[in-house]
Amino acid sequence: MTILIDKVLTWRDVAHVAEGEDLALSQGAWDRVAYARRIVEALVENGARAYGITTGVGALSDTVVDREAQSRLSRNIVMSHACGVGPLLGRREVRAVIAAQIGNFVHGYSGVRPDIVRYLCRFLEADCIPDMPSKGSAGYLIHNAHTALVLIGEGHACVAGERMTGRAALAAIGLEPLVLGAKEGLSLVNGTACSTGLACVALARTERLLDWADAIAAVTLEAAGCQMSAFDEDVLPLRPSAGIASVGAALRSRLQGSGIIAAAVGRRLQDALSLRAIPHAHGAARDVFAHACGIVDQELASVTDNPAIAGTPDAPLVWSEAHAVAPALGHAADALGSAIAQVAAMSERRIDRLVNPLVSGLPPFLATDAGSHSGFMIAQYTAAALVNENRRLAAPAATDGGLTSGLQEDFLAHPTAAANKLLAILDNAEQVLAIELMAGVQAQDILAETNSPAIGTLDVHDMVRQHVAIYADDRPLGHDMEVLRQLIAGNPPPPA
């Protein structure tokens, strides 16, 4: 399948491209790219003073660059800005960044040649994945520069899983290194493609994780013999929230017909908050997720190159602006990271209620032979450690601040850092939920001996048991935890 872009990509489009779909442009999109390039060429021909085209960049914006040096300026920008550090981003993340960058150029305000866009589309088609270090972008420049390196035959990339030089990668996919023209180096490193692309991947992962969180919570609610009255259709609307309503409906549907729940009616007047407040915590995360989706789509609809090129070749306009700064995107990623960290924290509390013999009413630590077996005792330690790490990661990136480029860039919004933090929080949250899933299904095996579970939770149980067996201290527990993490990360839960 190929995603066709006419005017604006959505976050779902970018997420599909990240997973392997190709990206193609409509004729109207190609026309906008070509027309903007004609305007840049007119600016060069006229010798007009324009940031990053006939001048240096950043604190060197008042330094004029003569026509003969403009191509060299573009190349030099790429070389000097490609200074990322740390582990490389994965294939999915790099493809998302490239897709978001193409989307920015297609608005028709950047002024790069159509060849630049053709090369980037070819990268996606041939699965050519530039080496893109994960760290170093205070705003946006560094991640993008590492993709640009490969366009000019520098740097490194993976093609068909084999790492090679940028020049060899281009040859492997039938391309020659590009010689960049005026403004192209600046446009290739500019814009919010890195933070936007990473955010699109995070949204796709969040959507799946929230569905799993509801399904896993239902398994735990059943094992804990919860009082379903807290989730009644008449009760939850007293706190209006689309998220709360959605979670409540999912819990009621999945737990319908549970003999275990029926046997527990009236056992307690009121459940602990980690059980009773599931719609509130999961629902809040869903509400924040919906807001974040709108912000990321807004970002994809925005021109984030600086300067923006407009007007006509006869009357060119160059607008120096700050659209490459993305505070809203950083705020959205920070908020969603905090919400997911809270979902994981509540999951860890439910794990403790499943394994803790003081409150569970189940065999200690769900062990098959308590005493000689430890069961899930230490798995709960792992969940607690990951939740604590998420607590640290959830500190907002938006308030980090910083000064760069000789005081020219004296405000930094840190959307890329916020997106990277969100992805790290999701890593931990997937693992915490996998531990809860593992424990909840083990509890269901114990309880099913006397009462029948709901069809909705039994479907979850059966899906898990296709991948891992009942745990009896007979194998390394970490392997099972990783298997279920991969299940959560890569597959939707069975329908309620």
Automatic annotation (TrEMBL):
Gene Ontology MF term list: histidine ammonia-lyase activity
Chain segments annotated as transmembrane: none
Keyword tRNA processing among record annotations: no
Keywords noted in UniProt: Lyase
Superkingdom in the source lineage: Bacteria
InterPro entries reported for this sequence: Aromatic_Lyase (IPR001106), Fumarase/histidase_N (IPR024083), L-Aspartase-like (IPR008948)
EC number(s) stated in the UniProt entry for this protein: 4.3.1.3
Record protein name field: Histidine ammonia-lyase
Classification lineage: Bacteria, Pseudomonadati, Pseudomonadota, Alphaproteobacteria, Hyphomicrobiales
